[in-house]
Amino acid sequence: MTDDQHPKSDDFAARSGKNRPKYVQVSDLLIREIKAGHWREGERLPVEAELAVELKVAVGTLRKALTLLESEGLLERRQGSGTYVKKPPKEAAYQLFRLELLQGGGTPHAKTLAVRKEKNSEVARVFGVSSSTLFWRIERKRFLNETPIAAEEMWIRGSHAKQLTAEELDESLYRHYREHFGFWISHVEDRIRLDFCTPWSADILNKESGAPLGWIERISWSSQDSVEEYSRTWFDPDVCHYVSRMA
Amino acid sequence: MTDDQHPKSDDFAARSGKNRPKYVQVSDLLIREIKAGHWREGERLPVEAELAVELKVAVGTLRKALTLLESEGLLERRQGSGTYVKKPPKEAAYQLFRLELLQGGGTPHAKTLAVRKEKNSEVARVFGVSSSTLFWRIERKRFLNETPIAAEEMWIRGSHAKQLTAEELDESLYRHYREHFGFWISHVEDRIRLDFCTPWSADILNKESGAPLGWIERISWSSQDSVEEYSRTWFDPDVCHYVSRMA
DNA sequence: AGGAATTTGTGCGTATGTATC
DNA sequence: AGATACATACGCACAAATTCC
């Protein structure tokens, strides 16, 4: 870290074309260190006093950077204990799942029905790649408290795995992505429409063909803002509904 | 503000049974001042140095309190200018509206059909009040780009107005609440289900009775976490869909 | 247009409280 | 109980943005 109190031409500022405050530069530096694997998930960082000396900044400045990173979810700070690299949320497996039983709640659960590699020009358009690109297509049946509630098909980039079978896929695909493919979903966009039972969904949901269904089309992005998943979920409106909270 | 650096028995701590940090006490104090109308919306607060002296805290401590209040959306701080009491967002009229045309987008627009005062025990339960409480019930027709897309009925507390007619209600009820009733909606929860055209909704949406419809049940809270609105929206799935983004 | 005054933002350093180990 | 580590609090100097003349 450069020691000019109000930097005007250090490395980062020069590259980014901006005059970023020193505490932001420090936080950027720490982000790079963490992503480069300098500290592992869950590992404790050096204590503030040490790190401040090492980076040649005042403790207060370092603290501001650490606080910023904590607010962004990359670090966890515990008084009396230390500052830790935060693990991607383990319990967040179903954090982005928005279906609930009509009476409220329910524990999500999924069963993989089929996995195959294929091309799909419509899906390729969503991902913004060439229509000859191969995707993994995964079909699943979803439950809340053992009640079948939805049929689902999803696509991810074929490049993530050479082989992929139903057996090796986790309950939570999001966790599988993180632990086996090295990325994780940070935000999604859902469109909820109305559709009708096809023979496929009727079979899975045990409904008569042609009955009305809720239909969720989801695009999922990684924290780098790249599209990493596209999915379609047909849910049975007799047993569940979609819940959305916003501020 | 008490001047013990690490307060152990000031007014607030005594009342709350906790030892709150001084900067939190300061922010609590400022919240009370603002709510009491000591400073109006948009008005500038005294400069940091003055306010710090007045409250008998260090400037840094005051700054931490002000930063906290800014993060909570009560204040706005502008370098070189001052610290201002934030006005509730004007442009947020349709911020919480989540229906879009199937092809995407569309400008929201609403027409009030009927307004009347009535009791409704089901609605009273949502508000958490006695079932004999009177509510205003407002029926509206919603459009996107002049296309009729939804029929809506909503309830608000009867106590907000003695009289209320369709003519005096704004396009945006949320704005009307803010400007005439003195509260505003800060967060909502939607449940999206499937329903079918009733004679009423069929008439408004120009559909045949019994056709499937999307159904949104919404509970809206003010920033004080009190339920202030309950609404039901039936939307035509042939022309629009519900969109939800989350991180 | 431009410079001075004002006001918040950044940065430094230190002392002490409080939670954890 | 003692050592360690983060949290709070104080105060000062200067930068940057805004305002005003």
TrEMBL record, chains A, B:
The segment(s) forming the HTH gntR-type domain are 20-88
Q: Which UniProt keywords apply?
A: DNA-binding, Transcription, Transcription regulation
Cited InterPro entries: Bact_HTH_transcr_reg, Chorismate_lyase_/UTRA_dom_sf, Tscrpt_reg_HTH_GntR, UTRA, WH-like_DNA-bd_sf, WH_DNA-bd_sf
Question: CDD domains, per this entry?
Answer: WHTH_GntR
- Which PROSITE patterns does this UniProt record tie to the protein? HTH_GNTR (PS50949)
Q: Which domain of life is it from?
A: Bacteria
Pfam families recorded: GntR, UTRA
PANTHER family per UniProt? GNTR-FAMILY TRANSCRIPTIONAL REGULATOR, MANNOSYL-D-GLYCERATE TRANSPORT/METABOLISM SYSTEM REPRESSOR MNGR-RELATED
Q: What is this protein called?
A: GntR family transcriptional regulator
Task: List the top taxonomic levels of the source.
Answer: Bacteria, Pseudomonadati, Pseudomonadota, Gammaproteobacteria, Oceanospirillales
